[in-house]
Amino acid sequence: MNKNDKNINQMYGLTLKKIRFQKELSQEELAFRAGLDRTYISSLERGKRNPSLVTMDKIARALDVKLSVFFD
C-alpha cells in the first residue's frame, strides 16, 4: 500500500465515522445493517482496510446516504 492509498483509506474512514456519529449508530449497529463484521467497520474507520466498491455501497445504504458523500 503506497502513501496515497493510505491517505484515501484514512479520509474514507474519517468520513464514515463522522456520518455514523451523526446518525447516532454504534459500529455494531452499522455492521448489522450493512451485513458486515463490527471489527471490519472499526478497521475501516481507522483507515486500516481498503474497502471494495460493493462494501462502500452496502455501508452507504446502511447509513441511508448517497455513496457520493464519501467522495466529496
TrEMBL record:
GO cellular component labels: cytosol
Start and end residues of each HTH cro/C1-type domain: 16-70
Keywords: DNA-binding, Transcription, Transcription regulation
Recorded GO MF terms: DNA binding; DNA-binding transcription factor activity
InterPro entries xrefs: Cro/C1-type_HTH, Lambda_DNA-bd_dom_sf, TransReg_Diox_bact_type
Keyword DNA-binding: yes
Keyword Lyase part of the UniProt annotation: no
A Pfam family recorded for this sequence: HTH_3
PANTHER family: HTH-TYPE TRANSCRIPTIONAL REGULATOR, HTH-TYPE TRANSCRIPTIONAL REGULATOR SUTR
Protein name as catalogued: Helix-turn-helix transcriptional regulator
The organism of origin for this protein: Halobacillus yeomjeoni
